[in-house]
Amino acid sequence: MAPVPSEVTGLLKRWSAGDESARDQLIPLVYERLRELARQRLRGASGENSLNTTGLVHETYIRLVDAPQVNLPDRAHFLALVSEVMRNLLIDRVRARMAAKRGNGHAPVELTETLFVADENLESVTELDEALSRLESVSPRQALLLQHRYFGGLSLEECAAAAGISLATLKRELRSARAWLALELAGEGPH
Question: How many C-beta neighbours within 10 Å does residue 99 have?
Answer without folding.
Answer: 8
